[in-house]
Design a protein that fits this description.
Elements lengths: L1 H16 L6 E2 L4 E3 L2 E16 L2 E5 L4 E6 L6 E2 L4 E6 L1 H37 L4 H33 L2 E3 L4 E5 L7 E2 L4 E7 L2 E8 L11 E5 L10 E9 L7 E7 L11 E17 L3 E4 L2 E7 L5 E5 L1 E8 L2 E8 L6 E3 L2
Antiparallel strand pairs: 1-2, 2-22, 3-12, 3-16, 4-11, 5-7, 5-10, 6-9, 7-8, 9-11, 12-15, 13-14, 13-16, 14-15, 16-21, 17-18, 18-19, 18-22, 20-21
Helix pairs in contact: 2-3
Length: 337
Amino acid sequence: MLRIRSLRLAATAAVVSSILTGGVFAAEGVLVVEPKEIEDVKAVYATVQAADVIAARARIAGTVATLSVDEGSEVKGGEVIAVVGDPKLALQVEALDAAIKALKSEVANAQLDFDRTRQLFDRGTVAKARLDQVATALDVAANNLKAKEAERSVVTQQMTEGEVLAPGHGRVLSVPVTTGSVVMPGETIASIATNSYLLRLELPERHARFIEVGEKVLIGKRGLARGDGSLVQGELIKVYPELQNGRVVADARVEGLGDYFVGERALVWIAAGKRKSVVVPVEYTFTRYGIDYVRVAGEGGGATDVVVQLGHPHMLGEQAEVEVLAGVKPGDHLIKP
């Protein structure tokens, strides 16, 4: 047993001695701790906002006859969400139908009168002035009929415009009317948030010089905490040039916010400058009984498990790393557990 242990100690010492200063002995999983420049990540609160809030409006005055949506409903562009009815339009259509029927009779009589007068003119019985007079009467009656038919088409189109259509895909935020409500043209029937959501960040004024468009942000999948540690990456797409109440306002685009409520708060991690710190790959750390450890190689061989305090995780390329706040110092040699 003593011999085996001596061989193990000797192998460990050989590995440690083969480490170059500032390098990593990847084959044996030994890492030299060196401070590196990292982004100083800060946690801030953000609010989920719809990129666009559009209003579905009534196009005619009348009474809301049917209403097929409520707060939270999903709608598609062009979908009928309400019908506004105006009883006066139906009465106008009936009146116009009666007027059109009367005008058709007048046109028929004017046509008969013109045909008779034409025959008499051909026989030389009546003068040309009489023929022109009945022809003009026929044209007037026909044009009056066309005018009434066009007026009826206008009223029919107004009845069709009683259907309130969703202007785009999204989720209904508010419905300020109910069935039976009297509405005027242009009045809002429902407010719809498009399916494109943004994170609205409000940062302290001191962060104004650090943030810029294109900067990456991290957000938990849901809620105000890290949860299981899985984070979703987003990107700043707009930084507003005006401070509001001493805060910088910025918008970030993050995929997968469709199941969030508009106005829901989320905890976001954003870079606020750079600083030097000790960062090691996550695989070099392990947890035992709720305490975080790293394995440090000794000078004369062997290894010691050292308690460390871990900070925020970092992503450098494809490798997940974590900040070590205390427990190790530059120059220590870490061994994969």
